[in-house]
Hints:
Helix 6 runs antiparallel to helix 7. The chain is built from 9 helices and 2 strands; from the N terminus they run αααβααααβαα. The protein has one domain (about 15-280). By secondary structure, the chain is mainly α.
Amino acid sequence: METYFSNILTTGSDEEKARVRLARRGLLVFFAMLVPLSILSYALLMTSPIFVLLLMWAPGLSSIFARIVLREGISDISLRIGGKQTLKKLPMILLLPVIIGLFAYGIAWVTGLVQYVTPDTFIKAPSAVIFVGTVLMQMLFGTIIGVLSSTGEELGWRGYMLTRLIDARIPKPVLTSGIIWGLWHLPVMLVGNYYSGPYPALSVVLFMISVTSFSYILSRLRLSTGSVWAAIFLHASWNAVIQDAFDLFSSGENVLLWTGESGIFVALALFIAAWMTSRKPLEIRRL
């Protein structure tokens, strides 16, 4: 197993310069496709919510376009599951959204800042049973279904852009990738279609903290396992558990101020999780 940097020669060598040049060319082609495709997706999304799938696949399609144009192939994307490295991370992938949810939403519910509600369901059971059942359902089946959309994003963000930022010697590539990912979401957020709280400016700041922190965790997973699948699974698990379970049981006038991806408690929880993740040494792998 070799790291991404194991074959890099002395800084300034011809091989190193070629690596940087190719990575920067890849980023240029990637963004040249991503920007217009994203704008088109935003415009279509205003007419019908079905186009959210096109938007989520814009990064993946842009990375495929760049690979074809530059004849880069797909060996670096590590489409294999990742063997023991990914399997070892599977409990964390499935449980992290639940832990974040229990911490952030739990505080909001207990303090009364957000109202805990039981959604209507055909199952007649105590509220706690319905809640646990919903979370478990989303952890398993929701994650599997969510892979369809999360694959589109992760093929582009962590499967292509992140590693090109590293090879291009962009300063703080993991942080940079998270900021770019967050900014990409802002158009749909600013028009009120995605986690727009009562104070738009505050929602944007909190959302950027949440997304950048979550991106750091996703990036570490992708780099440490050598496989993009780890990031795909966690992204899908997050969307399923947080959006289709915890959000479903939350209500109130200020629900988006305290919870959700632009909520104060979620931003705090993800920041803490990213900080704790950063304390562990990172071994970058390539399968």
